[in-house]
Amino acid sequence: MPEYRVTYFETNGSKVKQDIFAVNKEELVSMLRDKDKTILDIREKGAVSKYSFSDFIKALNRINISGTSVDSTTLIMFSRQLGSMISAGLPIMQSLETLARDEKNDEFKTILGRVIDDIRGGVAFSDSIAKYPKVFDRLFVNMIKSAEASGGLDVTLISISEYMERLKDIRDKIKSATRYPLFVFSFILLATLGVMLFVIPKFKKIYTDMGADLPSITLMIMNAAEFMRKNFFFLFIFITGLILLMKYLIRSNESVRYHYHNFLLKFPNLGPIYQMGILVNFSKTFGLLISSGINILESLELSRNIINNEIYRRSLERVRKKIQQGYTIYGSMQEEGSIYPSIMVQMVGTGEETGSLDEMLLKFNQFYDNEINKKVDRISQIIEPMLIVFMAVVVMILTLAIYMPIFSMGKAMQGY
Description:
Elements: E1 3-9, E2 15-21, H1 25-34, E3 38-44, H2 53-62, H3 72-87, H4 92-102, H5 106-120, H6 125-129, H7 138-150, H8 153-210, H9 216-230, H10 232-252, H11 254-266, H12 270-291, H13 296-305, H14 310-324, H15 329-334, H16 342-354, H17 357-407, H18 409-415
Helix pairs in contact: 3-4, 3-8, 4-5, 7-8, 8-9, 8-12, 8-17, 9-17, 10-11, 11-12, 12-13, 12-17, 13-14, 16-17
């Protein structure tokens, strides 16, 4: 009986390498699938390796330092088209081959080709796509695995496409609320820097040659401009380094990340929109996973993993542990305080009592999605006049600093 070196994911997401004896590869695959293992690789031990230079090049091509070129739009279209084709009665192999042939994204086209080869060799669709976590995340893989076990792969794929499209819309709405203010603020900042670095130094020479007594506001801005002109390169390196350091600390240090995310949640006006985006994302994901037949604890874990906020990640971990101890979801969330709005907690409680938790979560998702739209519109109406006032104040200060000495230029010229 041959021995195989197997690499797979446990249900909790941990990666395992193990040596297993089996009659053949097909029996081994079936055995692991029965135990809900996500297979990554199976190799027979002692087999002669035929690893060639071309295999080495292919392995290098799989390495993508920058992440992946497969964006959410590509995945949305793929899920919707594959679901529709399977729903129309086409076999999954034929559907994937058609989609791979028409795919424009080279990286995704290559991945689909490998997935087709895996399925042709007896590997399940979910196990094959699990090999590409940068493209197909754990949520995607687990929903496909659940659909393969219970049937309804076409419905699940279409649900995934709708889910991803909804999340994309939410992200776009949040970006639209901040894009215009950031653009205007950046323009004001660049214009101010331009004046201070190139315009004010020329006026300083004129004023100095004439011996004019300069107003304090002019002297202050001129000194600041002179400092920036002499130390521009140092300041640029310092600010860039500080930004990169903060990004690194936020990514690698849990404590820094916690305080940064807490700051974002409490940021005036934009903080509530950010919080709504997190809750809409969570409720949609959690509801969709439950409706797909995935158990509560695993659904919570998967929902937690896709949330990019340390406050809520820690909270959901506490909620999950309390549920393991016998608490209800309603009671666990209620103990977390104001981090979850009362309407969400109440709807979760109602859903638990009536056995319709997934429906109540999706109803809350729709409600909060509408609230995000209203918040974005309201913030835009508030921010635009504030930016106009801010721009006017900056222009007024610079204008006074430059032209106030000119008003007394005649007196300065008499002394000159």
